[in-house]
Amino acid sequence: MADIHMAVPPVRVEELQFHQTLSSSTSLFSCPSSPSSASCASSCPSSSSSSSCSSSPGCSPHHRHPLASSLSSLGPSSESGCSSDAISLETEPVPDLIIDPTVAQRACQEVLEKLRGVGTPSQGEGDNQHSPLPTSPCGTDNGSVHLEVVDRGTIQEEDEAGVVGGWDEKEEVPAEETGGDSSDSPSAMSESESVSSLSSSLPSSPLPPVSASSSLSTSSSSSSSTSKQSWLLRLFESKLFDVSMAIAYLYKSKEPGVQAYIGNRLFSFPESDVDFHLPQLLSMYVHMDEELAEAIRPYLLQRCTQSVAFSLECAWLLGAYSSDMHISRQHHSRGNKFRKHILSNLLQQTAGGEGVDSAPGSPSERYLSPVRAHRHQRSKSDAAGPVGVRGGIKRSGSNPKVDGSLEEPVRLTPQREFIKSLMVIGKRLATLPTKEQKTQRLISELLLLNHKLPARFWLPTANFHHHVVRIPHTQAVVLNSKDKAPYLINVEVLECESFETSSIPVRIPETRVRSTCSTENLPDCGVAAEGRSGVGVVTTVSNYDNDDEAWAVDDIGQLQVELPEVHTSSCDNLSQFSVDSITSTESKEPVFIAAGDIRRRLSENLAHTPTTFRRDPEDPSAVALKEPWEEKVRRIREGSPYGGLPNWRLLSVIVKCGDDLRQELLAYQVLSQLQSIWEQERVPLWIKPYKILVVSCDSGMIEPVLNAVSLHQVRKQSQLSLLDYFLQEHGGPTTEGFLTAQRNFVRSCAGYSLICYLLQVKDRHNGNILLDSEGHIIHIDFGFILSSSPRNLGFETSAFKLTSDFVDVMGGLDGDMFNYYKMLMLQGLIAARKHMEKVVQIVEIMQQGSQLPCFHGSSTVRQLKERFHMSLTEEQLQVLVDQMVDASMRSITTKLYDNFQYFTNGIM
Amino acid sequence: MQQRGCVLPLSEEEEEEEEEDEEEEEEEEEGEKKTAMAQVEKKVGLLGLRTSSSKKPLKEKVVLMYDDIFARDDPAISNPRFWDELFLMKVNLEYLEAKLESLDGDEVLKIKNNINSLFHHCIQALGEEHQIKVVNALQTLCALFRGVHRKNKSATGFDIINMLMGFDKAELRMKDLMERLDSLLCGDGSESLKSLCLKLLLCLVTVTDNISQNTILEYVMINSIFEAILQILSDVSSRSQHGYDAVVLLALLVNYRKYESVNPYIVKLSIVDDEPTLDGMGMVVHQALTEYNRQYKDKEEENQGGFLSALSSMVGSMFVADADEKLSVQTNEAILLALYEAVHLNRNFITVLAQSHPEIDMAATSIDPVPTTPTTPLGTTPPSLDLMNSAELPLDPNLQTSNLLITFLKYSSIVMQDTKDEHRLNSARLCLIILTCIAEDQYADAFLHDDNMNFRVNLHRMPMRHRKKTADKNSPSRPLVCAVLDLMVEFIVTHMMKDFPMDLYMHCVQIIHKLICYQKKCRVRLHYTWRELWSALINLLKFFLSNETTLLVKHNIFHMALQVINLFNMFITYGDTFLPTPNSYDELYYEIVRMHQVFDNLYCMVLRVSTNAGQWKEPASKVTHALINIRAIINHFSPKIESYAAVNHISQLSEDQVLEVVRSNYDTLTLKLQDGLDQFERYSEQPKETAFFKELVRSISLNVRRNVSLNTLSQDVLLKEFSSIS
Q1: With an 8 Å Cβ cutoff, are A398 and B274 in contact?
Q2: Helix/strand/coil (H, E, C) string of B6-28?
Q3: Each residue of A766-795: pLDDT tens digit?
Q4: How far is residue B18's CA from residue B10's CA, in Å, rounded to a whole number?
Q5: Does B450 touch chain A (CB under 8 A)?
Q6: B222-255, pLDDT tens digit by residue?
Q7: Per the confidence metrics, is the pTM higher than 0.90?
Q8: What DSSP string describes A505-559?
Q9: ipTM over 0.90
Q10: How close does chain B come to A608, measured CA to CA in Å?
Q11: How close, in Å, is residue A64 to chain B by CA atoms?
């Protein structure tokens, strides 16, 4: 959040000038009446050429709100207006908007009038918190004001100044801008030109602190409401106005006009950016006032009609976030209504205009055709008897989800059913007492699920389009949990163009793998080759014909073994010529081998296999997680009938049932945000946010961390100290392998130490800390963060978990790596606090209306902010980090907690 | 509309009846009276049957009508509505069958036309709306088939066809019949009706002792009802009620002239790839085998006395009412045959074997267009369905997870315990054949060896003097192949008897060989206690040695010995590819050296036999060659161990000490690589097993026929069901 406010002023001014010069209109935004609208219109052509005005027919359904629809038109104009800007920090794709130029023109007028109209009374309040001014979001982020301006440059130096002068400055910023604008145009022009020249050089050479502060200090503290409004508008139109900012304004502004504007501005953002903030958007939709909900709604509706995946994610999140409301209100709540609307499939009909779902009828047609073909072919294959009527009935049992949905709303159903059945499995498993039984049950349940595949299912945690074709059921494992039954499954998918329109792959019988892999069966190979090319509907059908033939030829051949006529020919089929036994048959000379060689080969073979974990009935997941992912992929691919296809991929997912993953989702967002901050600030901290899919308030899916086992499993299986385990896995202390792993360990340790401190992650026993094959540690299970801690036992008082084991891996207290660790933490903390608002905002919005335990109490956000220590100097921060490290290391409570976990849960 | 149509002829009928015969007037009127009446009728019928020649007692109307048919004239001449009326009468099976049986060859010819038209009208009646007519027609057909066959045991099939249908019409009639049956089986009609259809088919299939001599089946081949059977198996509710009959029927049909002609059922069965159907078949087999296992367990407990077991067997009899009797008495070869055919013919069926929990049905949890309201006029669903749903859907934590393969292995372990009884011997043999097929299948091998699919399989073990019975109650959860190996070891150990089941042993050793070949090929290192297998095999050799003379009279023990020695050779030369630990390789040597006496003696014996001219010369000399490596090992290590003992002044070396000697002396030992150790002959039913299967099918036919005849008589339920329409 912080960088938004800081970074904007200079840049915004610059681009404002750009606008002005472009349109040669003198007072562009200062008077929001006719001139500005004219400018809007004039700037539109330039933009509309690049943005997708051609797709205008599609916008009608969601633009019921006149203001809303008109406001949305502002998006592209501003966007493209600054697209030529030298200052673009990240290249944004041209938003595909659907705007009628005339509508847009009218909209500009309306918006500006609206802004002016509503701006006046709020100004009267004079309260930063409630005014629609940009100052209100800034109101809380005192210290960070300055940091952005001097981005990447002299951060530390400006830091204190920023802290001191923050409050005034941000008040001044708008004033300065608006003041410049509202005065006569030539002066504004000249001034802003100078600023623009300054700021345009920003990316290449950092803005000198002097100039920044000088530009800020020139401002006056008083400003009129109209000028503020226009300032706001220009901010919104600026290139730097990103989703994060938009969300912040949405949240903090109580101004319907602003809300409506931003609601439509959302259309112009890249979808992936908005998707990241979807939990915030939906949480606001559910818990905040009606105006806000109305403002967001068109955007959500539009996205829902476009994408099944988005619809489902919305529906799931809405369901989850609505669950915190009181039961009586819940049912009729806005969130639930919207959720029902999405699920009712009404949206598909309204899908108009551009893109995939152009004609309402055709997508469903296209959608179904492969299914039908599929079914038809299948029934033909096994029923060719005198009574042909039956073919359809019979087949219908096998693919019930796909077939059954012929008349049902077909759009969301398959995927919902898929997820539902995964959840049901989890629920069933929870009733079984032992891990062994759970695993067996899981395998059999998945085998049944397999019968319904391939189908229009996909894993929401993946980032490419695909269809699920098979679940290698025997590879599924039940994870360690005391009373729930989370489990990990691997899922074979075939990548495709689009899961909504691409045809569903043809089912290949499970046993087919034998014929393709073991014997050279020509017809089978033909099928495999065809399947490779077969993405379209046409090939699908022909494919299956071939398949049938293959079967027929094949099986009759096999049959003839039993028939007397051909029997003689097939009786000499000595089979199973292993490659290893080539020695025989031809060469009649005896071959001698030394017994010692055999024995040696045996021990060598066993020694050379990578270290594996023993199979433990109490911990079935250990072995499965230890196996290197590549290895697993190769193995599963070999055993899969689909393995030969080039677009074959293996994914894995953890299905959690009975757990609330909303906190995990929050943690994921915070982690991702911090990760990108650190990346942006070039701090080499390593963390691994893992994707979360919230399906309801008590179920969801988690993207597993690959190649990682828990420290508990490491300990239990290897019976080694962590350092010895590192040495065993990566080589001696001076080898490159070990050093790389050690560096990885330190970076990840530092990253997660900060995370643990900032988010107050608790319940840090060794079962919740993973170690991956490269030496990174990864913290999982963010069930206790912020204000909640397990059973409030008061254990884990230290800031984060740093055991002597960890320190040993880092080379001891005096080692370089340990110092590197502390240094990384300091850098990380500095970087993090620079962007504190971005992080805090995620948490703050989610707190709205939430009953999550992490928001227990009223001071959650305040305490979170305090942990960023905005008021400390860098030296003070360094002291703080040292203190925390010291305290954590000495912490008896960590040890106590580990012991506690060992005695109660058997976690080492 | 349909109901009215039903009522109308009934009331007309009643009037007519009143005119003709007052005794029968109330036939279809009220439920209670009717059942009472039925009993009276039955008695009368029986009475009439016994005393038909002497007195002319009261005859029920249907009997009179039968008599009309057996007169020479066309009964329809005197009574144009004769055939309509006939199928409204409750069938008197005994009378009809007895009547048919009592006919002489000449008489048959005389009334051939009438029988033909009876057959014809039966088929026509199958298409009637009125279900009572259908029921009666089905039963009449049953009686016709059976009566005619019972009479003409020696007659050719063609004569029978001629007698029933007439040569010229036969094809048409049978086509009609099969189509009617097919539509009855697949329609939404009453479940009891479907059941009766299956009974009729079973009846038809088993009328001859040798199924291949049943010429009528040629028409069943042409007019396939395969699809109907599959549909029954794929649907949950129909499967639970008729699955057993359907599966048995299919197994029998597949065996019709299996070796002589192209049997369409074989072809079709082999290409089925529809999972629900295959699963359904698997479930039926699973249930039957589970039921057997359960009953065996109950019986076992009963021996210790218990009232609980009696109670549970009562529940069991409710569950599979008809299968119960068969199972409790003897093994269920019919279902085993069905399993064999499925495994042998259909490669897709292999996946079903590994499918756990067949109880959870897909259709039950999915959106399936299964009619939830049964179309039966009775308001209740059949009890078996209820029981199935209630008993199996909730999770029982105490219940071990099971799948068809596990159930089958348990079943096998029970059956193999005692092979003295011929049925059990047959079953054991069939079990081993099925296991052979499974062991050959690569997909099956894959899941047998899958490290992630661990199960506890509690095999039944014969109580023996020298071992405790409950020793391994808590066997660890292991890959399934361990259970298979255990079973094989168990069999080897427990069947060294005078009446040596050589071919069973052959199957057994071959199964082990096939599994090891897979492990070698795929480098699967199974954590199995191979030692048990080694010592079992060595004991088998010992048994051969001590019973050489008696065994040689009947069997080629050298072939068997060769197989066993080759198994050892597999371990010796390829052990590096599949043994779990280096230690296990040492143990192999230890075991061989420890039991060197057996190998020495074997060598002496085969040397002796191979030097003598005789029929065993060649096989014996093969064994001599195969023994090269084992002899090399013994000759290499024995002196080393002795000298170690001498040097260290130990009289009795401990195992560890011997292993130490073995370990340190590998390098001076050279082994000869033997040919084709990892090659095996694929199982083929022909020609080795043809005789067995022919005999097996014959015995199954007899069995099924006996049981079907019992069931068709208890049709009161049916009548009750259908007469209450009005």
Answers
A1: yes
A2: HHHHHHHHHHHHHHHCHHHCCCC
A3: 888 888 888 899 988 887 887 776 665 555
A4: 12
A5: yes
A6: 888 899 999 988 888 888 888 888 999 999 999 9
A7: no
A8: PPP--TTHHHHHHTS--HHHHHHHHHHHH--SHHHHHHHHHHHHHHHHHHHHHHH
A9: no
A10: 13
A11: 38
